[in-house]
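User: Continuing from earlier, I have the next pair ready.

Assistant: Great, send them over.

User: Here they are, in order.

Assistant: Folding the first of the pair now:
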Amino acid sequence: MSDTFFDQEHDEVQWEPPRRGARRLLVLLALVVVVVVVLLAAVGLWAKGKIDPSGDPGEEVSLTVPEGATTADIAELLATEGVISDATVFGYYVRFSGGASFQAGEYTLARNSAMGDVVEVLDRGPQITFDTLTVPEGLTLGEVAERVGSIERFSSERFLELAGSGEVRSAYQPAGVDSLEGLVFPDTYRFDETEDEAALLRRMVELFDQVATEAGYGRDTPPNGLSTYETLVVASLVESEARVPEDRGKISRVIHNRIEADMLLQIDATVIYARGGQRRPNGQVLFSDLEVDSPYNTYKNPGLPPTPIAIPGRASLEAALNPTPGDWLYYVKYEQNGAHAFSETNAEHNQRIAEAKAKGVNP
């Protein structure tokens, strides 16, 4: 039997170029890919311009985000005010940035802002608005209440009622005295919408206590055996009478000297207070005013008034506790700027009055 041989070599597969139709399909697919890439690039550039517009941010605008506003509502508001350029893009930007729930309230934003900056401001929450109240030295509690009432949401009547109720008390307020007359501190106060009349009054009293303590009240012994509260009354008299800083210590000394000499204080400011704070147009106190029947009238009643008559500042608090050394018993307005002349005798005092009138100063 003869051997049979087999050829174990396989024929190689030969590559044949694609037919014409297949080539056209590949070319078309390539063109589609190019078009898509170009379109995506164009959309990307367009979106980038919307998200981060060219140029600097514009003027600031105040916006109020209402309660219950959705992201779409806020986007429309921002676009209407020119803060962002496209509400739809902003909605997608917020969504793809992780989403957010923005709070209702007041915001300050700039026109032509980058969306990232806008989201950052909104994420911080609404800005807190503050009211400002300036309370100068020398006001009565009633006058302070009037200023408090100038804030739209506050009531002067409510403030004054609280200040006389004993609900808020000073550390320097004696038992049995409910009025905070002279026990609130003159300053400029900033407060937000969460604070009411009681909160504001409490801050005024706390600041007064702090300043009085720093001035030495409760630590230093008052002169002439006066109590701490009586010395605060002196401070209110000094505040009401002094017109230039250098007079405070001297007026305090006159008050202390008269108390020690058992003389009537005869302070015009107490008469004005006794008349309900009614000042005459020219600032004068008439002889008829001196007859007003009131424990605050120091022309008729010996000693100090029963309470302070005004709110003293730090300098008057210090002057009442540390009067300038001297033997004066009298003073009179002597200069046009309100500075006083001080005298030890009644004769010298009358001479100073005549000299002041000769200079055209109304004593």
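And the other member of the pair:
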Amino acid sequence: MNFGIIVVTYNRLNLLKECVEHIENQTVPVEKIVIVDNNSSDGTKEYLQSLSKESYIVDFRNENGGASSGFARGLELIQNEDVDWILIIDDDAHIEPDYLAFIMQAAQRYPNIFAFSGTVYEGERIATSHRKIISDWIKFKTMEVSQEQYNIGFFEYDLSSFCGLTIKKSLLQQVGLPNVNYFTQYTDTDFSIRIRKHTKIYNINDSKLYHKVKIVSNNCDKKELNYKSYYSIRNGIYTRLLYTEHKRRQRVKITNFYLIWIARNIIMSIIDNKNSRIYINNVNIIFCALRDGLNGKLGKNKRYLP
């Protein structure tokens, strides 16, 4: 059973070095490591050029096409290599030494399952946002897998982030590559839904990785939204409409929800004059994301870039 790993990186050299170190410390040998650099400018290119092992394949992009493009390119490259299973991670995901060993045991125990993942920790806590179920496929309602499910050996779920998702290479021929038009945010949701049409996804709880991210608030009335907020809102709307069976009803529900969100920010811009710029920025992002999501306008938006 041969493993390959895909890493997408952009201007996070120190995290990338730690990520590579954790990969090389795996108790199960890794056949190929594909690293896609989204046009970094912080010394990442020079570091990657120093990786001389034959197991590495490095792809330097001429522009930052986003995580969606990076993962699609990585999967495109690795599907031509002699590997059976492919682990997908960002440069800020640091896998424990036995991560792949536990995945391998599960793959051998459940030969009819073609997608596995591990438990994601952010700090000392399990980050349940990376593993979700669709509680209502008709209305496309999702919910995070509860903490209690992580106390058993494994659990089945529907939506995986790219943080630790491991798929059988042959599955790619059925589900295709990630949709590059998402640019970033929700690419993994769309990819997971396509996977679920062909196989269950099991989370192997003893297989652990640490996601080195800053914990931030998602409260739109107190936090200034940024480019990721635009893609998260836009792509979330698009994905929800793509897979729901009640598109007209969902369009109305979605529109009302975001118009209320916009109204709240407008009111706050009047009340809190000191921070009015933040609220007006939020209004612009939410409005643009709502408009583009409802109209199915995807791809890179030049107004909202890293």
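Worth noting for the second one:
The domain at 3-211 is CATH 3.90.550.60 (Spore Coat Polysaccharide Biosynthesis Protein SpsA; Chain A). The CA atoms of residues 3 and 29 lie 7 Å apart.
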